[in-house]
Amino acid sequence: MTKIANAQFWVHDQDEALAFYTRKLGWEVRADVTMGEWNFRWLVVGPPGQEDTGLVLMPIPGAPMLDAESSDQLGQLVAKGAGGTLFLETDDCQAAYDELSARGVAFNDPPTPQPYGIDTSFRDPSGNNIRLTQVLEFSLDRH
Amino acid sequence: MQPLARHLLRAKDLADARYFEPLTVPDLARAAGVSAAHFSREFRRAFGESPHQYLLTRRLERAAALLRNTDRPVTDICFDVGLTSVGSFTTSFRRIYGTSPSSYRAGFPPARRHIRVPACVAQAYGRPQNRTFREA
Q1: ipTM of predicted assembly, 2 dp
Q2: Phi and psi torsions of A89, nearest 5°
Q3: What average pLDDT values come out for chain A (143 residues) when binned by 10 residues?
């Protein structure tokens, strides 16, 4: 194998997720293909400058993939924040925080010094966690 | 249309982010946009513990981290994490960690203090639990 091509988040509403990742985060649409007979939309977004890696915004599936109860449970788990975390990097955590805040991203915490760098976090509309880190040389003095 | 749990998650995020402020359960209810009358029950249904319990264990987790990672006095750490009574801090800490704040600190020599994992992971997994916890 050679690389990670796409990672995936479950989302409650693909239109809402698409608006968040493109308009608020400033990401690009990599693929947006609707397969009508399956009632399925393959939707992939990614950050400018990293063309070969994407994030698939996958709708919470119903039948035939999941029965109604399982589908509801998955939707609830994502809403509770148990859907997982995407770890992003930036060259300047404060600048990214300022720029994204101005576009309406509600951060959970301000840029915070940690031994491994400076980081902050926010969630997408479905509740998926996104960590944004400016990696610095490991230092126990920075906490 | 977002599930109720997504709104309740905002309360949890607020506790994680601003535990050092004088936050109360009504503040958390407002963050979730849920009426105070239903909030604690719905939070417990979604996350398996009351919002009061979540906020207190977050504060104790942060206090434990400060005891391990800094040389700040125990009294300062109590206020640093949003608690206002040193007596109840010590009592809660002992109930959950099984030892006093200062003897907890003594068990962590400097070389063992830092783990190279993201802070969110350390916070999520490091928050203590106590099944015998009683509501205040």
Answers
A1: 0.87
A2: -120, 155
A3: 95 98 97 89 96 96 93 97 96 98 95 93 98 92 74
A116-140: b or e for each residue (b if 16 or more CB lie within 10 Å)? Answer: bbbbbbbbbbbbbbbbbbbeeeeee
Of A75, A80, A143, which has the smallest distance from its Cβ to B9's Cβ?
A: A80
Q: Do B118 and A131 touch (CB under 8 A)?
A: yes
Instruction: List, in order, residues 6 or more apart from B5 with CB less than 8 Å away.
Output: A76, A79, A80, A127, B46
Nearest neighbour of B116 by CB, restricted to A87, A116, A125:
A116
C-alpha span between A8 and B114 (Å, rounded): 31
Backbone angles phi, psi at A109, to 5 degrees: -150, 155
What's the predicted TM-score (pTM) here? 0.86
Bridging pattern class, strands A85-89 and A129-135: parallel
Q: Which of A114, A124, A138 to mutate to test the interface with B (most CBs of B within 10 A)?
A: A114
- The residue among B24, B117, B132, B71 whose CA lies nearest residue A117 is B117
Cβ atoms of residues A55 and A21 within 8 Å:
yes
Q: What is the pLDDT of residues A92-127, one digit of tens each?
A: 999 999 999 999 999 999 999 998 999 999 999 999
Give the CA distances from residue B83 to residues B42, B58, B94, B97, B110, in Å, rounded to whole numbers and listed in that order.
25, 11, 15, 17, 26
Tokens of A117: 């760098």
